[in-house]
Specification:
Helix content: 40-55%
Strand order of the largest sheet: 2-8-7-6-5-3-4
Strand content: 5-15%
CATH superfamily of the largest domain: Type I PLP-dependent aspartate aminotransferase-like (Major domain)
Protein name: Pyridoxal-dependent decarboxylase
Number of helices: 15
Number of strands: 12
Cofactor: pyridoxal 5'-phosphate
Radius of gyration: 25 Å
Number of domains: 3
Keywords: Decarboxylase, Lyase, Pyridoxal phosphate
Bound molecules: pyridoxal-5'-phosphate
Order of helices and strands: HHHEHHEHEHEHEHEEHEHHHEEHEEH
Family: Belongs to the group II decarboxylase family.
CATH class of the largest domain: Alpha Beta
Pfam families: Pyridoxal_deC
Largest sheet: 7 strands, mixed
CATH topology of the largest domain: Aspartate Aminotransferase, domain 2
Shape: globular
Distance between the termini: 60 Å
CATH architecture of the largest domain: 3-Layer(aba) Sandwich
Structural class: alpha/beta
Length: 497
Amino acid sequence: MPAPPTLLEPDLLAADPAGLADVGRLVTELTREAAGALRRRSGPLPALTPQELARLLDAQLPEGPLPRTGGGRGAVLALARSYAANTVDLADPRAAAHLQPPSLSVAAAADVLASVFNASVDTWDSGPYAVELERRLVRSLTALTGYGPEAGGVLTPGGTASNLQALLMARDTALRARRDIRGTGLTGLAVQPVVYCSELAHFSVSRACAVLGLGEDAVRPVATDARHRMLPGELDRALAGLGENEVPLAVVATAGTTDYGSVDPLPEIAAVAARHGVRLHVDAAYGGGALFSDRMRPLLAGIEAADTVTIDLHKTAWQPAAASVLLARDGEDFTATTGLRVAYLNPDDDGAAGYDGLLGHSLQTTRRADALKVAATFLALGRDGIGAMLDACHDLARHAAVTVAAHPQLELAAEPVLTTVVFRYLPGTADAPADAVNGALRRRLLREGAALIGRTEAAGTVRLKLTLLNPQATKTDIDEVLTAVAEAGAAVEKELS
Ligand SMILES: Cc1ncc(COP(=O)(O)O)c(C=O)c1O
């Protein structure tokens, strides 16, 4: 048996010339194994229950993923085979559950290069090109958003992280006026901080408030209209009625709610926020992709009035996770909140001489060169290329809505705005409660590995959801998924009644 390679072999260092060739060979072998496993698959998920999958891993990795002695390339190739056979296949047109797109090959390949060189963007000398690339990428995105030259931004590990950082900025900006609270939190302040968002805002807003020491009680949900958009009049009334010790830190508008894709009326909300002197953050984690599309862009009219904006390029720009970006109309907001000089990373005189990284923009220290995959994608496809992908998914959502509306056993919850379609299966008899049937039919599809659809709640009842982010899926694919849903519904109904 050949001796397993050891870490002392120079060709195992990815960025060595010989190592780089080895990466190329390994990627070729791994992708070949993965392709073979993919060909044998029959759906977007493995046809396994969670318990069966756990048993499979126990059998495949009896010592777990950390054996005493390494198994060399063979072990890696076996892992690649199992992974490709049993992971989610988002390129399967029947995968339509979450805001998790199939990633583009150009982005995935560029991401390999980011791993090879392992640059970090916290300091200039940890990754000079990556630092400059991120600066330029941010500039392109601030311009796309409609911001001026003083705007700034940073890539973050997700929409949750971007929203957290936006609310950190809001907290510090609002309370700095009362005293310098930076680094001291809110201890001792006899005020109740308040953050407004719609009742359909993402839970990361309340999580951010908890993390920032504001408490989840700081979040005041504002009612939405029949089209799932925040009511600006309600927001206005709430702000006007604030108590003496209540300090409004921010209004968070959502541009693309997770379930409905609805976009809060940004110009009206911006006007209310401005009238009350409150910061505005727009969570466009999902809807931000509309900026790339001429057809969809009007949905985001007014976004440039926001102080900060979250856009998730790992949702509607088909990037491997994660590639979120937090943009600020005034780039100084970063300096005021996360600006930091650390002796061993970015001392003043290095900074003055231009040797400055992005440490002061981020809550992270070591940070991947995520700009590389995004820039590679944008350079390859251009804004129009990404926009066309979103338009294609929007077309699929409209088709799905028409099909659902025409189906006797399915009920549409709302007209699609972006690329999601919320609906449910209507049981034929009262013996099988709708909630139980809809929950069970989704699990049945998961268990069979036949289709991967989402689930949510509306008006206290279970709904199903298609999140359509595969621009190569066809209308026939969508019809097949909906047929599978109706068939699974009928089968479950029979079991339950
Ligand atoms: C509107 C909205 N904001 C924020 C997030 C959180 O994004 P992430 O999962 O990248 O943290 C999501 C996730 O779906 C979302 O839909």
